[in-house]
Amino acid sequence: MSAPTLEVRGLAYAYPDGHQALFGVDLHVHPGERVALLGPNGAGKTTLVLHLNGILAPGRGTVTVSGLPVVRANHKEVRRRVGVVFQDPDDQLFLGTVRQDVAFGPANMGMRGEALERRVMESLDKVGMADFADRPPHHLSFGQRRRVAVATVLAMDPEILVLDEPSSNLDPASRRELADILRSLDVTVLMVTHDLPYALELCPRSVVLSDGVVVADGRTFDVLTDDALMRAHRLELPWGFDPRAIGNLPA
Questions:
Q1: Rounded to the nearest 5°, which phi and psi values hold at 58?
Q2: Which end of the chain is more exposed for a tag (fewer CB within 10 A), N or C?
């Protein structure tokens, strides 16, 4: 197997108030994988994500992205390689037009002229939003804004795309459209989600984080059909949804 795109070893972290959020997390994600990060509220998922591009620094342990340590000296390159799409797209869209928002990151990295315009339009095309380049983001629907938020990250040409609750607040059609987009992207994906059917649909592998430690790592179907594991870590499938009736979905 190829070297991991993302490798976390022995990661521990306590907040300044003394709350210990992570207790020695090990995680590896390989090129091209789509991995779901599951767990109850308070499990440490957000704390883990904030270490992946250097927003938080480990109390103990290491994080590397394609062999590059996530340390202060490497933050600029790490933040290009690890693109985080936040749960609320309005946290990422703040300029006058969609085009300006998508151009913001690569322009800050020094890209200019035709190369920048090409990167912007390619990124928007990947999420089906090229026709909206000159629209103000606040005139778009929530689902469209989420797709533009994905494009702002794709414009940085990341190696790994980290999505925080990508299906939240989406209507069924927007949810399906985003799933189709994520399947089409040639990028490694780590998806933090409480939406267990979405995890099964999109991510062949799932990692379960609970009380700051990894308690399961395996096929998503196996995780979601392990009744004892699900019950022990407060993971609950929607009423009427049975993965066994669907079967193990293809990668």
A1: -60, 140
A2: N
251: number of Cβ within 10 Å: 12
Tokens 């096929």 identify what position?
A: 219
**Cα separation values, 15 from 71, 184, 222, Å:** 18, 38, 33
Percent of the chain topping pLDDT 90: 88
Distance CA 235, CA 126 (A): 33
> Where along the chain do its domains lie?
6-86+159-246
- pLDDT tens digits along 125-156: 999 999 999 999 999 999 999 999 999 999 99
Give the chain as a 3 state SS string.
Answer: CCCCCEEEEEEEEECCCCCEEEEEEEEEECCCCEEEEECCCCCCHHHHHHHHCCCCCCCEEEEEECCEECCHHHHHHHHHHEEEECCCHHHCCCCCCHHHHHHHHHHHCCCCHHHHHHHHHHHHHHCCCHHHCCCCHHHCCHHHHHHHHHHHHHCCCCCEEEEECCCCCCCHHHHHHHHHHHHHCCCEEEEECCCHHHHHHHCCEEEEEECCEEEEEEEHHHHHCCHHHHHHCCCCCCCCCCHHHHCCCCC
Closest CA to 203 of 173, 145, 243: 243
Asked if 224 and 248 count as a contact pair (C-beta separation under 8 A), the reply is no
pLDDT digits (tens, 9 = 90+) for 52-92: 999 999 999 999 999 999 999 999 999 999 999 998 998 88
Number of other residues whose CB lies within 10 A of the CB of residue 42: 14
6-86+159-246 CATH: 3.40.50.300
